[in-house]
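During the reporting period the student researcher (J.K.) took over the structure-prediction task from the postdoctoral fellow and processed the backlog of single-chain submissions. One of the processed entries is reproduced below for the supervisory committee.
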Amino acid sequence: MSLNLKPGNDVGVILISHGSSLPFASDVFSEIAVKFKKVINCPVEIGYLEFSKPTISQAVDNLSLKAVDKIIAIPIFLADGIHTLVDIPLILGMEKKEADPRFLDGVYPDDHYLNHLDGFDFDGEIVLLDCIGSDPLILQILKSKVDDVFINSDTLNNENTGIVLVSHGSRLNYNSEFINELLRMFKDETDYKVTLGFMELTDPSIPIAINEFLKDNTFENLIVVPVFIAHGMHTKRDIPKILKLPSNIKHSHHHDHDHSHNHKNIGMEFNGKIIYLDPIGSNPLLIDIIKQRVDATINK
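J.K. obtained the following structure tokens:
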């Protein structure tokens, strides 16, 4: 990866993450930041939406202390949702990009966290980039993970093994559009039999998706691909619970905002082997995506 940026400290970058009450996400994003700093020629900070430190506001202050006059903030989220379209813009002092479906009148209760945001001391320009989206390199990362499972097995093949992409789900349509586009790309560019399911908020649920998948296929194995950047409560506890896989993570997280979960098991009709993969992590191709987006903004 080449260094295309002009030298100097006039521009800084914030990699924005959701954060998690478990350490996995912070570990992964620290790795992402370390790798990204090696290929970029400007100050870089991580800013977390919740649970972890530094917060997004603290990341802005940290860059302000490094004498930058322009900040490029990029949400390391795979798909748009309330966080990227409402929460993050408001935290950065911008207009939200879409009406908040939680409060359509735009009025938040007195105790809502958006009424109690930390301020920051920065009078330069802040540019908020889009989230990662259905970039072809994301397909390459996920496909490589699945390929490795087949390569390292003497028994798995396309007839006895199906692929299930698992996403979080959202009240907005963007998450569904993102994962459905990845599904289309998977089907167009591979010979795998693949479907998708959502953990919550969006249909089909994971059990329903698997049940429908099994109506047309006789699988002995399912490779479940969590389409997430990093492990957290959802990938370590919630999704394994839905899949009836063991998990030693107890229900210990909470959200300050309304985030209703539905983890009811509605009867998954599969008794074969489930191979549950790790999320994307600090894959070099993810670093490539981030660098391409930042370079394009800097070099406009």
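The committee noted the following: The first strand starts at residue 11 and ends at 17.
J.K. will present the remaining backlog at the next meeting.
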